[in-house]
Amino acid sequence: MTQSPDPAREPRVGVFTTDTDLVVKSWDDSLAQMTGISPAQARGQRLEALVPDLTSRVSAERLREPLVSGAVEVLAPAFHKYLIPCPPLEPSAEFDRMQQRVVIGPLRGDEGTEGLIVTVEDVTSRLDRERTLSRLLRDGSPADRVAAVRKLAELDNPDGLGPIETALSDEDWQVRRTAVRALATQRHAHLVDAVIAALRDGHRNFSLLSSALQLLSTTGVDVTEALAGLITHADADVRIQAALALGSQPRDRAIQPLIDALDDPDVNVRFHAIEAIGHHAHPDAMNRLCDIATSGDFFLAFPAIEALVRINDPIVAPHFAALLNDEMLSGAAADALGEIGDEDALDPLVKALDNAAVPVAPIVGALAQIQARYKTLFDGAAVIEDGVNESISESATDRILLELSRDSGESLKHLVTVLSWLRRDAVPAPLARQLGSAGARHEVIEALVRFGGPAVTLLIGQLASEDVDVKRAAVVALGRMGDARATPALTALLLDEDERPLWAAVAGALARIGDRSPFEALLSRLGDHDAAVRQAAIGALNSIGDPSMSTRISGLIDDPSPLVRESAVRIAGYFGYPDCVDGVFARCHDTDDSVRSAAVELLPYFDDPRALDTLTAALGDPVARVRAAAAHALGSMPGATERGLLMRALDDPEPWVRYFAAIGLGRQGDATALPLLARHARTDAAVHVGVAAINAAASIGGEAAVPVLAALALEDGERGQTAIRALGTTRSDAVVGVLREALRSEDPRRRTVVVEAFTAQGGTAAVDALAWTSTADADPLVTRAAISGLRDIANRNVPTSGAAIRSLIEVLHDPQRRTDTLTELARLAPAGIPLLVDGLDAEDPEVRRNIVEALGRLRNPLASAGLRQALSDADAGVRRAAVTALSRVGARGLGSRLSALALSDPSPAVQRAAAAALHRRGADTATGNE
Amino acid sequence: MAFEPENLGLTSTGLPLLRDLIHEHTGLFYDNGRYDSLTDRLAPLILERGFRSFLDFYYLLKYDDRNAPTEWRRVLNALSVPETYFWREVEQMHGFSQHVLPELVRAFPGQPLRIWSVPCATGEEPLTIAMVLNEDGWFSRAPIEIHASDASSVAIDKARAGRYRERSFRTLSPELREKYFIQHGTEAEPVPSLRDRVTSWSVVNLKARDEIAAPAASAPVIFCRNAFIYFSPQSVKAVVEAFAAAMPSPGYLFVGASESLLNVTDRFMLEDVNRAFVYVKR
C-alpha cells in the first residue's frame, strides 16, 4: 500500500536564474506551475519588472548581495512572506498568497559570478499547520500543548526554532520537557542563539532557565564560546548561569573562562565556577583550587575540596593533610584523603588522631578507604595496615576503642577494620564485645580471626552469651581460627539440646578445627531431624576422618533410623570404605526412598562388579528419585553397557532421570549418542533436560556437534544461550559466523553470552569480534565482558594473546571504556607485559598515561622497566604518572633521575611529583644511591 | 560459614545463577561477602533433593513446574531470618501509639484501623504492637485490627502456635511478661486476650506485588522492619513503590532503626514522631 505525499512534508520547489542585471535567464516548469508565469513570459524580463512590488518587500541590496560577496541569502517566509506573488496551490485557511522560502545564491561560470540562481519553495501548507499548532500551544490544555510541540517538531522548520521556542518557558514541565527533547534532536545553529538568549534574558525565569540548561546537556551543540562571552556579563546572575552552563559543556575550552571566574568579585559566581570546574575535573585548575581550599573561606573551601577530589590527583594530598586539624574542615579533608590519598597520607591522618578536637570517625574512614583501594588496585593492603600499626600512638588507639561503643553502620565497620591492623593487647577484648553488632559482625569476626591465639579465650567466653547471634558469630570465628582449644566448649554446645539453633554452625566449626575428640558427639547428630544439622555433621565427620569411622559407619548403615542410615551411606560413599560395601548394596533395596537413592548414587565409588546389575535394576525403580540417582551414577561409570542404559534412560518419563542421563552421556563422550542428544536438545519438553543435552553434545564435541549447536543458537532463552556458550567450547572455525550473527541480538544478556563464547573460542576472529564489541556495543555490561574476555585470552599464552593485548591498548583510546580496560590490563599475566610496554609508543598521551597506570599496578620488574622508560615521555602527564607509579612500587636506584626531574622538568607538576617521590624514598635518593 | 559444601560432595557450579534467581524472586540479595550464608542455608535442601550441585537446584526452581512451588516455600523458610524478640525497637511503637494513631483515628472515624506487620517472623512484633496499644488503652477506644505476614510458612506456623522460648523475652519487662504470657515449662504462650488481638496470620512474599497489593491497600499503617537490610537497593525500591501505590493517604510506613529510604523513593516523607522516625505518604 502506498501513501499519498503529505503536502507539508513534500514541498514544491521551483528554480530560476538571472544575469548580473537581474534579467531572468531561465524559469523552470515547476515555477511556472506555482506562479502561473510561463517560462516564455519570464525569460528576458528584469526581475523588478516581472514582480512589480518586489523592492517594497526585499531590498535591492539584499538581492544583489550574492553577486557581490558570493554568500547565499535566505528569505525566510516569516519575514518576507513571498518573492513572487501568487495564490496558494492548495486552499489555505491562513493565507491568500503562497508563502515562499527563497534561497538566492551566486550563479558561477568560467568567468566568475554570472548571475543569480534562485530557488522558490512553496511552504504555505507547513505554515498553515504551524499557525494552527501555535494557537494550540498558546491556548490548549497541557496535553494539547505537548501534542502541539511534537507536531511542530515534525514540521522541522529550517529557519529556526519557531513556536517551539516559546514552549521552553511553558508553565507545565511536561510541555517544557517535550520541547527540550524536540529541540535536542534538531541541532540547529539557532539553538545556540535560543539558549544564549535564554541565559542572558531569562535567567530569572526558572522554567526557561532549567529548559535551557537541560538543552545544553543533551544536544551536544557547542556553545562554549558564546557562554564564555557571558561569564563577563555585567549582571552577576547571568555570570552564575554562564558558569553553571560551562560546567555542562564537555570542552577543554570551557576551563580557562571558569578559572578566570574564580577571581570574580561576586562570591556566588566563584562558588558556581568551582562547582563547574569540578564537573570537568581538569588538572589545570588544581593550583587555584588548592589556594581556595586552604584560604579559610569556608563557603568556598568545601566545593573546592570536592572539585579537587574529582580531579583525583594525589599530588594535592598535602593540602588536605594541612586541613586535618581545622575544626571546620577536618571531616571534609579526611574524606578527601580517603578518596585520593596514598601511603603518604597515612602519617598526617594517624597524627590527627592524637588531636582530641579532631573527630575520630572520618579519619578512620579515610584510613580504611585507602587500605581498600590499595588492596583492590595494587594487592597492597599490607603497606597501609603495617604503616598504621607502626605509627599509631596508644592514645590514638584508645580514642578508636572509645568510639567503638558509640558508632554504628559503615562507621563502625571502619573502626573495626582499622583496629584489626593494630597489634595491641588492648584491642581484642573490646572487639569481641562487638560481636553483637549485626551490621559489623562480619568485620569483627575477620578482625578476631586475624588476632588468632589471643582472641581464642575471649571467643570461648562469648559462647556463654545470652544473645544467640553473638554465640553463632563466636562459633564461626573459632572455626575460622582452627584452634583446638575451642573444641571442648564447642562439643558441649553440640550436646546441649538448648543450643540446637547452633548445632549446624558448631559442626561446621569442628570440621575446620579437625580435632577428632568430638567424634562421638558428631555421630550422635547423624539422625537429627534437621537436614542442615545432619549434613553439617556428615561434613565434619568427613573432615576429621577418625580411624574408627569405617567400623562405626558400617554399624550405622543398618540403624533403625532411616536418617541415620542415609547419613551413614553418604559417609561410606564419600570414603569408599571396603568394609561398608555390602551394607551399601543392601541399602540399595532399602524401604526408605532417600536411603535407597543415596546408596544407588554412591555405588560407583566402591568399584564393585555388582554395581552394574544393581544400577540396571534401579533404573526400573518405581520411585523417580531412585532412577535419577541411578542415571547419575551410571554417568561416572565408563562402558558401552552403561552408555546403552543411559540412552534408554533418556526416554524416562521423569525429567530429572533424563537430565542426569544426558549429563552422564556427555561425560562418557560417545559420539553415537549425539543424534539422541540432539533430539532432546531440540525437543525435550523440560528446558533443563534440553540444556543438559546441549552441554552433553558440546562435551562430545567434534564437527558433528556444530550444526546441532548452531541451529539451537538461533533460539531465544536458555537453550539458545547454552548452545551459544557450547559453541565457544568447540574449536571449529565454522562457529564464528554463527556467533557473529548472534552478536546482533537486541538482548544484551544474549550478547554477553556470545562474548563469553568468543572468549572461550579465543581464535583470531574471536579477538576481532571482542575488540569490536568492546568499543561498539551500547550496553556497558557487554563491553565490560568483552574487555574482560580480551584480557582472558591475553593471559592464556596462546597465539592470539598478543593480538588481544594490542586490542586492549586500542580500546584505551575510547575514554568511556578506559577505566574498565585499565582494570583488566592491571591483571595481565607477566608474559604479556612487554607488549603492554610497547603500547607506550601510542600517539595519544592519554593512552600512554593509562598504560603507565596499569604498569604501576602490575608490580613486576618488566613493568617497572616500562615505567622508567615512561619517565622520558614527551607528555608531562605521562611522566608524572610514571613518577607516581615508580614511587609506589619502589624507586630504588632512581635517585639521580628523580632529582633531575624535580629540579629541571619543564612541568611544575612533574617536579612536584618527583620531589614527593624523593621525599618518600628519603636517604636512598638523597645520597643518589644508584 | 557453618559447613563446607565440598565436604559433602557438593559442587558450587551454578551458585551465581541461583543467587540471582533468588534475588529476582524474593528480593533477598547475597553479595559476595554473604555467599557463605546462602550456601549454608541451601545446601541441606539441595542434598535432600539428591542433587550434587547448585546448578541442578537452579534448574529445579526455574524450570520444574511440578516441584518448584514447594521448593520455593522451602527456600523461603530456609532463608528467612526469624530471630527477633518482644519489645524490639519499641520507641517507634510508642511514637505510633501516642502520636500517629490519634491522627489516624481522626482521619478515618468509625472505621476499623488496620495495622500490617510484615515480615512478622514468628509473631513477636505484632504481639508487641498489641501490647503497646493495649497499655495505652486503644482497644477500648477504636476498632483496631492487626494483621501479620511473613514469607516463611514455618515462621507463620510458629507464630500461630504461639510458643516462645526465653530468648524472645530478652528485653520485655518481668511485669509485662507476667501480665501477657503464661509459662509452660521452658516455653511461654500469650494470654488469649493478647493472642486474639492479631486478626490474621498469612504467608506473603514481599517481592510478589500481587501478594502485597491487597493488604497494603487496606492498611494505613505498615510495620516493615529489619527486612530491607537483607534486600538489594532495587528490591527495596520495588517493595516501597508497591506500598506507596497501594496504601491509602495518609499512610505510615515504619522501617527498622538501621534502615533508610533516603534516595529510594520520594513517595514517602520522613517525619520525626517523638524521636521515632516514620515514612509518611500524604
Structure write-up:
The complex is a heterodimer of chains A (930) and B (282). Chain A is mainly alpha-helical. Helix content of chain A is 64%, strand content 4%. Chain A is built from 58 helices and five strands. Chain A has a five-stranded antiparallel β-sheet with strand order 2-1-5-4-3. The longest helix of chain A has 19 residues, at 360-378. Chain A is extended, with a radius of gyration of 39 Å. The relative contact order of chain A is 0.02. Mean pLDDT of chain A is 86; it is low at 1-10 and 923-930. Chain B is an alpha/beta fold. Chain B has eleven helices and nine strands. Chain B has a seven-stranded mixed β-sheet. In chain B, strands 3-4 form a two-stranded antiparallel ribbon. The radius of gyration of chain B is 20 Å and the shape is globular. Chain A binds chain B through residues 408-409, 438-439, 442, 466-469, 476, 479, 498, 504-505, 507-508, 511-512, 530-532, 534-536, 538-540, 542-543, 570, 574, 594, 597-598, 601, 625, 628-629, 632, 655-656, 659, 686-688, 691, 718, and chain B through 1-5, 7-9, 33, 40-41, 43-45, 47-48, 50, 52, 56, 59-60, 62-64, 83, 167, 170, 186, 258.
Main sheet: strand order of chain A: 2-1-5-4-3
Structural class of chain B: alpha/beta
Largest sheet of chain A: 5 strands, antiparallel
Radius of gyration of chain B: 20 Å
Q: Give the strand order of the largest sheet of chain B, numbering strands 1, 2, ... along the chain.
A: 5-2-1-6-7-9-8
List the helices and strands and how they pair.
The complex is a heterodimer of chains A (930) and B (282).
Chain A (H helix, E strand, L loop, with lengths): L12 E7 L4 E4 L1 H7 L3 H4 L4 H4 L3 H4 L2 H10 L3 E3 L1 H4 L19 E10 L2 E11 L1 H16 L2 H14 L8 H4 L5 H12 L4 H13 L4 H14 L4 H7 L5 H12 L7 H7 L5 H14 L5 H8 L4 H14 L5 H7 L6 H11 L5 H7 L7 H19 L2 H11 L2 H11 L4 H11 L8 H6 L7 H11 L1 H10 L5 H14 L5 H9 L7 H11 L5 H5 L7 H14 L4 H8 L5 H14 L5 H7 L5 H10 L8 H8 L5 H12 L4 H10 L5 H14 L5 H10 L3 H14 L4 H9 L3 H12 L6 H8 L5 H14 L2 H13 L3 H15 L6 H11 L6 H8 L7 H6 L6 H14 L2 H10 L5 H14 L5 H10 L3 H14 L1 H4 L4
Antiparallel strand pairs in A: 1-2, 1-5, 3-4, 4-5
Helix pairs in contact in A: 7-8, 8-10, 10-12, 11-12, 13-14, 14-16, 15-16, 16-18, 17-18, 18-20, 19-20, 20-22, 21-22, 21-23, 22-23, 22-25, 24-25, 25-27, 27-29, 28-29, 29-31, 30-31, 31-33, 33-35, 34-35, 35-36, 35-37, 36-37, 37-39, 38-39, 39-40, 39-41, 40-41, 41-43, 42-43, 42-44, 43-44, 43-45, 44-45, 45-47, ...
Chain B lengths: L14 H12 L8 H14 L5 H10 L4 H12 L10 H18 L5 E5 L6 H12 L8 E7 L2 H9 L12 H7 E4 L2 E4 L1 H4 L2 E6 L5 H9 L3 E3 L9 H14 L4 E4 L14 E5 L2 E6 L1
Helix pairs in contact in B: 1-3, 2-4, 3-4, 5-6, 10-11
